[in-house]
TrEMBL record:
PANTHER family: 2-METHOXY-6-POLYPRENYL-1,4-BENZOQUINOL METHYLASE, MITOCHONDRIAL (PTHR43591:SF24), METHYLTRANSFERASE (PTHR43591). Pfam families: Methyltransf_11 (PF08241). InterPro entries: Methyltransf_11 (IPR013216), SAM-dependent_MTases_sf (IPR029063), UbiE/COQ5_MeTrFase_CS (IPR023576). GO terms for biological process: methylation. SUPFAM superfamilies: S-adenosyl-L-methionine-dependent methyltransferases (SSF53335). Residues 46-142 form the Methyltransferase type domain. This is Ubiquinone/menaquinone biosynthesis methyltransferase UbiE. It comes from Desulfosporosinus metallidurans.
Length: 251
């Protein structure tokens, strides 16, 4: 057992915040995902760790059917509510852990996951499972929090993420992502490191980050090297973050 209880607790308590989150529901990100995947009306898609359902709902508008899984029943209830609000009826919601899900091999044309891999306690196993249920020729899409390559960001920015969210495991740098992807039966079509800003205090409030952890996060940011400060500018209203995006095809 890894951090699954912590994930259920942290997300279960704050599920509606993730449904309402403008970060997760950002239409520009969702449109870029659709343009990369190019879903078709025959496709069956799997959304891993659906959270507030933004990815599943975006895909459902283009495909035949979506299965949306999450470890948190409260998050799934929010995702289902969001789909009803949009009159979407082709999503099946299921409580599953990505590390052990009960899904047969090669079932899906699309497997997608956004803003979730950094929670997975056994990332290699989770990624293998995602590939196992994808058909050969199927599309594999990930968008997740990332950090710049290098010892300082890989250590210090992950320390910040863990202070904010006790269920955080690792935001992988591009260097680490490429090591993980090399072991999977995938042909990489596209990767990119995207720079973003998190609005404060909204980013803290979404996870209920304690005041002393917020202060420690600013102490870490203030003590970054000169190069780190250029890559991770911040002020009272925002901090800088990076995301890694992947589109691949199953061999
Ligand atoms: C930030 S939310 C995901 C946002 C969502 N994908 C979107 O596009 O808006 C992260 C989700 O990962 C889920 N999660 C974390 N670990 C998981 C696991 N091992 N299996 C399934 N879901 C998991 C959490 O319950 C939470 O709902």
């Amino acid at each position: 057992m890894g951090n699954q209880n912590e994930v259920r607790k942290n997300f279960g308590q704050r599920a509606s915040k993730y449904r309402l989150s403008t970060t997760h529901g950002n239409p520009v990100d969702l449109e870029r995902m659709i343009n990369l995947i190019k879903p078709t009306s025959d496709d069956i898609a799997l959304d891993i760790a659906t959270g507030g359902g933004h990815t599943a709902i975006a895909l459902a508008k283009y495909v035949n059917r979506v299965v949306a899984i999450d470890i948190s029943p409260e998050m799934l209830a929010e995702a289902e509510m969001a789909s009803k609000q949009e009159s979407i009826s082709n999503i099946a919601f299921r409580t599953e852990d990505v590390h052990n899900f009960n899904i047969s091999d090669s079932r899906f044309d699309i497997v997608a996951s956004r803003f979730a891999v950094h929670h997975f306690s056994d990332v290699k196993r989770a990624l293998r499972e995602m590939c196992r249920v994808l058909k050969p020729g199927g599309k594999f899409y990930i968008l997740d929090c990332s950090v710049f390559d290098g010892e300082e960001p890989e250590k210090e920015i992950n320390r910040i993420e863990l202070l904010r969210d006790s269920s955080h495991q690792c935001s992988y740098s591009p260097r680490l992502w490429h090591q993980l992807l090399k072991e999977l039966p995938l042909t990489i079509d596209h990767t990119s490191l995207l720079k973003e800003q998190y609005e404060l205090p909204r980013w803290f409030d979404r996870m209920g980050t304690e005041q002393n952890s917020r202060e420690e996060i600013f102490r870490i940011l203030n003590s970054l090297s000169a190069e780190g400060k250029i890559r991770y500018p911040f002020c009272d209203d925002y901090i800088t973050t990076y995301r890694f995006e992947i589109l691949a095809t199953k061999n």
